[in-house]
Every structure is written in structure tokens, then in C-alpha cells.
Amino acid sequence: MIRVLIVGCGDVAMRAARRLADRARVVGLTRRADDVARLRAHGVIPIVGDLDDLRALARLRTAPDAVLHFAPPPAEGRGDPRTGRLVAALSAARRIPQRFVYVSTSGVYGDCAGARVSETRPRRAQTLRARRRVDAEDRLRAWAARNGVSLAIVRAPGIYAESRLPLERIRQRTPVLVDGEDVYTNHIHADDLARVAVAALFHGRPNRAYNATDDAELKMGQWFDAVADAHGLPRPPRIGWDEAESRIAPILLSFMSESRRLSNDRMKRELRVRLAFPTPQSMLDDVTPRALRKQMPLSF
Q1: Per-residue pLDDT tens digits for 53-70
Q2: Distance between CA 83 and CA 65 in Å, rounded?
């Protein structure tokens, strides 16, 4: 069995770990000691280490054969020193990993005015959040080229699952843009993103980027409406951009400033991924009966 190191042991990473259980020995890096029991419950061998402290990464010298890197950059700054420390620690190992998958973000493309976007499109990151991802991609490409590592970059959009839906925003009546000013947004189910990451580990071509997205072409308002309908909630109110600037939180407003439709042709062709959830509606159709039953009054 190959030895796979997972960095950033959140929800999607644990879904990937389950997919690797039959063909890899999975080791997980976590910064929190209280995560150890959770990782073991998922069949993952825990290593406690902090990407913000190079000295705390000494145990990574155990030489993994491959790496799945899910950890986000810091919340501030223009670069991603965490990824820099990770590759420095891996470079000091007895043997440098042969394969490396980095889960990045589709935000590196910036606003594309609703155009269809393939992986060959130049990156035009507009937010500091996305620029930190560009920095991580660049650091990894340079490191992989120097060390002969097969690097695959998976660019993910909004991730959803039954437990990862914007229900609180909908209940708070957070507005969305009117259709004529709305933006195209992209989504991937958490299980499918885990599937893509593992496929990239085994089938990804060297120095290759892959858009990890489903087949839907939804505007943001359509997405919120679909989630609201599935849970029997009122649809969000619609407002124009001028009003949105004064009523919507800056972080959500930044997502409303970018519009693109990601192509997943390369993901399907080269990684041979078959989506379990081709559109969000394929999951929401299963959610709807349960959600509505919870809202029904008890009858006696």
C-alpha cells in the first residue's frame, strides 16, 4: 500500500480518506490534539503538527508517497507561507513524495463576466483570498518542477452537502441580486470533490489543473431559491446592486462580484470522474421530503 499524507483534515478530507481506505495507508496532519480521536475513527493515523510552525512539522520526514493538501492559506496577507513550510518539511524527508494534489479554488480566475471557463484561462484573482491561493499554486508548481513531483491542482467552487447549505442566510432573509444583475456561480458536492481529489492522485497528469464542478449552470439567486424550496422556506428577496452594497456583508458581496461558468470537461475526460451529484437538485430532491416532514405539525 502507498502511504498518503492528508493535510487539512476537514470534512472533504475525511470523505477522501474513506475512499482511500482500501488502497492506501492514510496519515493525517492536524494542528489540534483533540482531533486525534476523530481521525482514528476515520481510519487515519494522526500526526499533530502546525503549518504555522516549521519546527512542528518534523514528523513529516516519515516520507509519504503522496500528499492531498486541503489546508487553506492564512486569513490575512498576500501569500501562503503555510504551503511554503509544508514543502520545506517534505523536502527534508528521506524521500520526496512522488505525487501531490492541491485543492485550490476557482476564485483564482476572478470575474469572467459569465463566460465559460476552462483550465487554460489565465488567472486574474481579484480578492486577497484568491490571491493567496494563486501564491500557493505558484509555490507548489515551482517546488514540483525542482523535485520531479507530479502535481495536480484541483480548483473547487462552492462546496455543498446536506450539512453544508446556506440555510441560516435564507432564514435571515439575506437578499440576492435581481436576475438581470445576478452572477453565475458553480458548485460541487463534498462527496464528488473528495472523489475528484482521489482521482487526481492516481490519474492526474503532471503540472495539470482541473476544475472540480458539477454540470449545473446556476445563477446565485437560483441556487438560493432551490435550497429554500427544498426546505419549505421563503425564497430570498431580490434587490439591485446599488442596494446590495449597503445591505449585504462584504464577504458575500465579494462572491456576488464574480461570474463564471466552469467547464468540467477535463475533469471527466482525464480523471474519469462520474459525478454522484451532477446538479445540486439531485441532492435537494432527496432532502425535500425529510425537510418538509420536520416542519409538519404533529397530528393526534
Answers
A1: 999 998 887 779 999 999
A2: 18
pLDDT in tens, 223-249: 999 999 999 999 999 999 999 988 888
Give the largest CA-CA distance in the chain.
71
Grid coordinates given for 262: 466552469
DSSP 166: -
Q: Residue 82 to residues 34, 69, 88, 240: CA-CA distances in angstroms?
A: 21, 11, 10, 39
- The total number of residues shown for the chain amounts to 300
Residue 115: domain span: 2-158+188-213+263-275
Q: Name the strand (E) or helix (H) holding 48.
A: strand 45-48
Query: Taking a C-beta distance cutoff of 8 angstroms, is the pair 49, 32 a contact?
Result: no
CATH number at residue 195: 3.40.50.720
Q: Is residue 169 part of a domain?
A: no
Residue 220 is assigned to a structural domain of this protein:
no
Would 200 be classed as within a structural domain?
A: yes
Cα distances (Å, whole numbers) of residue 154 to 87, 115, 212, 234: 18, 20, 6, 35
Amino acid of residue 76:
E
**Percentage of the chain with pLDDT > 90?**
87
**CA dist., res. 150 & res. 270, Å (int):** 15
**If residue 208 lies in a helix (H) or strand (E), which one and from where to where?**
strand 208-211
* Number of domains within the chain: 1
pTM: 0.94
Q: Compute the distance between CA of residue 110 and CA of residue 123 in angstroms, rounded to an integer.
A: 7
Are 60 and 69 in contact by the 8 Å Cβ rule? The answer is no
Grid coordinates representing 164 are 453544508
Q: If you search the block for the grid coordinates 485543492, which residue do you land on?
A: 103
For residue 23, being part of any structural domain is answered with: yes
Q: What is the pLDDT of residue 297?
A: 47
